[in-house]
Amino acid sequence: MSSFKDLTVYKKGFTLAMEIFEITKNFPKEERYSLIDQIRRCSRSVCANMAEGYRKRQYPAHFVSKISDSDMENSETQVWLDFSLACEYIDKKTYDDKIKKSLEIGKLLNQMINNPEKYK
Fold first, then answer.
1. C-alpha separations of 2 from 8, 55, 58 in Å
2. To pair with 104 at 20 to 30 A between CA atoms, which of 14, 33, 78, 81?
3. What pTM was estimated for this model as a whole?
């Protein structure tokens, strides 16, 4: 594997972040500096932390730490999706789809955390 962009988990994380970007365009303007910024930031951080960790993969502890940060950001994304549903900014179908994708990303990140030697 030559690039973090080749990782399935990166591709899935990037796609989810872009989907979140699109749905948040329809959120109320008063959420601009709270929910919108937060959910966009953490969903994008999933990929950013993966990229950082991948570049340091020769150091297993650093790699695991950054992928763990990516997993943390993915979990935060789920919380903001919870708020988006509770505030009725997204419907249940959209929520279920995004949560399902986030959970899959979490499983893939945990595989990376548990098997850092596969990424040297």
1. 13, 10, 14
2. 33
3. 0.95
